[in-house]
Amino acid sequence: MTLQGPPPVPAHAPPQVAFQRSEMNVILSLYGRMVAAGEWRDYGISNLSEVAVFSIFRRTAENPLYRIEKRPKLRAKQGMYTVHGMDGQVLRRGHDLKTVLRVLERKLIRAVDCPLTDRADAAAR
Q1: Given its phi and psi angles, is residue 67 left (phi above 0), alpha (psi -120 to 50 degrees) or beta?
Q2: What is the pTM of this model?
Q3: Phi, psi for residue 57 in degrees, rounded to 5
Q4: For the chain, which terminal residue's Cβ has fewer other Cβ atoms within 10 angstroms, N or C?
C-alpha cells in the first residue's frame, strides 16, 4: 500500500475571480435580512475566470431573481459591481458594493398594517 498525495495543480490554471470576505459579509447580511422577511430562500455562488456571481433565488428550482456580479476588469470604467434583475436587466452598477446593493434593500421596505389604526377605523364605522 502506497500513500499518494493530492493530484498536482496544473501551473497554467487560470485565476478565478472571487468575492472577498468583507464583500461576502455585506452580501450575506442583506441576504439574511431578506430570508427573515420571507422574500428569498436560496443562493448560489460561481467563481469564474472573469466574473464572480452571487445568484439569489426565491425557490431552488427557479431562475435567479437577482445576480450580484463582480468584474474586476471594469473597475476603472463603470465599476466592478453590478446587480442584474431576473430578465438580465442591469438594475445598478458602481464602484462601491454597499451602494450598489441599496437597490435590493428597497425591497425590504414595505407598508405595514397598523392594528391600532384598523381598530380606530372599525370604531368610527
Answers
A1: beta
A2: 0.73
A3: -120, 145
A4: N
Q: Which residues are paired to 53 by β-bridges?
A: 46, 69
Residue 93's pLDDT band, with cuts at 50, 70 and 90, is very high
CA nearest to 53, candidates 11, 22, 23, 10: 23
C-alpha–C-alpha distance, residues 24 and 18, integer Å: 10
Quick one: cell of 113? Answer: 398594517
**Residue 84 CB partners (closer than 8 Å, separation 6+):** 66, 67, 69, 90, 91
- C-alpha distances (whole Å) from 68 to each of 1, 36, 65 are 48, 20, 10
In tens, the pLDDT along 58-86 reads: 876 678 899 999 998 888 888 899 999 88
